[in-house]
Design goal:
With 571 residues, the chain is an alpha/beta fold. The protein has 22 helices and 15 strands. The chain has a 7-stranded mixed β-sheet, with helices on both faces. Strands 1-2 form a two-stranded parallel sheet. A two-stranded antiparallel sheet has the order 3-15. Strand 11 and strand 12 form a beta hairpin. Helix 2 crosses helix 4, helix 5 runs antiparallel to helix 8 and helix 15 packs parallel to helix 21. The protein starts with a helix and ends with a helix.
């Protein structure tokens, strides 16, 4: 088809434009046809009447056109403008597709997610609709653009054209500001997300910052925390790592699980049948640190709280796993996702496919059951306290149906496409709920495995990194900026199980935990709860952020013990 089209075009005279004129044409195309999310916002605002609405829309188009051309105009040189234009059309077509299809917003976190994703996640997003969009809004416009001839002009003429273009852009921006200042001030004040919706500026800005290393804090000096950390016994007496009956804690780090879809938390569907038969406590009001793995995972294992979270600083600070390891706890990480986002950089890590090559894995990924292979032998060989993290693939979308084995497709029919917007919402929810039911199975297997370890004081803690939108308000997936994100992306499950021996040795009142299960919590509690569970005393421990601290019977605070120990050491 394309060959026939361009064979016919070859008989037509090719239009001729100057490099600056071609730049304006590209700016018009980008502003008018590649900013669907932005235009939906502009047209959804409240206006005095229809005339004012369409007058402002026309003025905003000129403003957007001028802003794009203000920067594009600097690249309007005969040998440069076409490659730049093709790149912008192809890339903006794809970014716009994902924004329109899944309701995402481009920001620092979303770009970070893009660069840190794995091949399996990329494969899930490559769909027929995406390729068709790339053809219609990327390839075809690019070919037509390449068909246009660039007028040869002397350098002086080009510079004059660029100067006129620059002045025209400034004039259009100035007129908009002068005539519609009240409208623009209200728009930018009430809709700060507009800078993240505007294409191509949003993704070019954040991508440029990412590639330039602005977010990697590469020049920072590593700051160790918790160097005073020490293991304490159940009675809070300093002990060696060779305790008579070691403590072991398995932390299951979930992916994209939202609290409201757990049967344990009141969901109408039976998504947690196995956990409901086990003595667990599910905390029902837990807020995530972020709405993406790249933010939440480093944040939840850090010693910082969400409101003051600085990802650049955290990347070069000890996290709670480092502190546990420094105190003498054996820390191990089992990975079945797209990486630990730097959290496991200083502890031993094993990938799921390495545990039992060829078993329970496809060419692209492994099912989460693979995380348990060889775990019993590891537990039986423990000689001291240990923390083992299992990082799930969990409920990662959009291909929810691929996260579970065939025999776990309990709710049917399911959406078997990554193009969620083309599926009936009930089918999307079915596919998603099957992933929750599979997670229920995994957690039950972990608990049952720990129950058999009579030589250990065992505990399990499960928490997801963030939630997920399943079509509510036409939003899908996750990654929305925190202030704009719906509760579906921020409310996460947190479930714990403690063996009878662990409860007794640590003085944990199980009934107290159950009574506090509806207490508001957040990812801020994870790091300090891990320190408390493993009886690690350190000056960075904050008992008010240890969710188990209020339920320890007759036990003194680890912070108090640490202060007493420190005074003795100073004395």
């Amino acid at each position: 088809m394309l060959v026939r089209l361009f064979s016919k075009l070859s008989y037509l005279p090719r239009p001729r434009l100057s490099a600056v004129q071609l730049g304006w044409l590209v700016a018009l195309l980008l502003g008018l046809f590649y900013n669907g999310s932005l235009w939906r916002l502009i047209l959804s605002l409240q206006y005095a009447d229809a005339v004012h609405k369409w007058f402002f829309a026309a003025a905003f188009l000129l403003f957007l056109l001028a802003v794009i051309q203000l920067f594009l105009g600097l690249l309007c040189w005969p040998r440069l403008i076409k490659p730049v234009a093709v790149f912008l059309l192809l890339s903006t077509a794809q970014v716009g597709y994902f924004m329109d299809s899944y309701g995402i917003v481009i920001d620092k976190t979303m770009v970070q997610n893009l660069f840190e994703t794995d091949p399996a996640e990329v494969r899930d997003l490559v769909t027929g609709a995406m390729l068709l969009n790339l053809l219609l809004k990327g390839v075809l416009p690019s070919l037509l653009l390449l068909w246009i001839r660039i007028k040869p002009q002397p350098v002086k003429r080009i510079l004059v054209g660029q100067t006129i273009s620059l002045l025209s852009c400034l004039l259009l921006i100035g007129l908009n500001a002068a005539l519609l200042y009240k409208d623009y001030s209200s728009l930018f004040r009430n809709h700060r997300e507009i800078r993240n919706l505007a294409l191509p500026s949003s993704y070019l800005y954040y991508t440029g910052r990412y590639l330039s290393g602005a977010y990697d804090a590469s020049k920072r000096v590593f700051q160790p925390l918790g160097l005073d950390a020490r293991l304490e016994s159940a009675g809070f007496q300093t002990v060696s790592a060779k305790a008579q009956k070691p403590d072991v804690l398995i932390v299951v780090l979930g992916e994209t699980a939202r609290s409201m879809n757990f049967g344990l938390n009141g969901y109408a569907r039976d998504t947690t049948p196995e956990l409901e038969r086990l003595p667990v406590v599910s905390f029902t009001d837990v807020e995530s640190c972020g709405t993406s793995t790249a933010v939440s995972v480093p944040c939840m294992f850090s010693l910082q709280q969400r409101e003051r979270y600085d990802d650049e600083q955290v990347a070069y600070q000890s996290n709670v796993l480092d502190i546990l390891q420094h105190a003498g706890v054996s820390v191990r990480w089992r990975e079945n996702n797209s990486g630990c986002k730097g959290v496991c950089a200083r502890i031993p890590v094993i990938e799921a496919e390495q545990l039992n090559p060829g078993h329970d894995c496809t060419e692209e990924e492994c099912f989460d059951d693979q995380l348990l292979f060889g775990l019993q032998q590891q537990l039986e060989g423990l000689k001291g306290p240990a923390v083992i993290v299992l990082h799930q693939k969990g409920s990662h979308g959009p291909a929810y149906f691929e996260r579970v084995p065939e025999n776990y497709q309990y709710f049917t029919p399911v959406c078997q496409s990554s193009e969620l917007q083309t599926c009936v919402q009930t089918d999307i929810v079915n596919a998603y709920d099957n992933t929750i039911r599979y997670t229920d199975h995994l957690l039950a297997r972990v608990i049952e495995l720990l129950q058999r370890q009579e030589q250990l004081n065992a505990a399990m803690l499960y928490v997801s990194d963030h939630g997920e939108s399943l079509g509510e308000n036409n939003l899908y997936l996750h990654g929305m900026p925190w202030l704009l994100a719906p509760e579906e992306q921020k409310q996460v499950p947190l479930i714990t199980w403690l063996s009878a021996g662990f409860q007794q040795e640590h003085g944990v009142d199980w009934q107290c935990l159950k009574a506090n299960s509806d207490k508001p919590l957040s990812h801020d509690f994870l790091a300090h709860s891990l320190l408390g569970l493993m009886q690690v005393s350190t000056s960075v421990y904050q008992p008010e952020l240890d969710l188990f601290a209020p339920c320890r019977n007759g036990q003194r605070s680890l912070a108090t013990v640490h202060n007493q120990s420190a005074r003795k050491a100073d004395g």
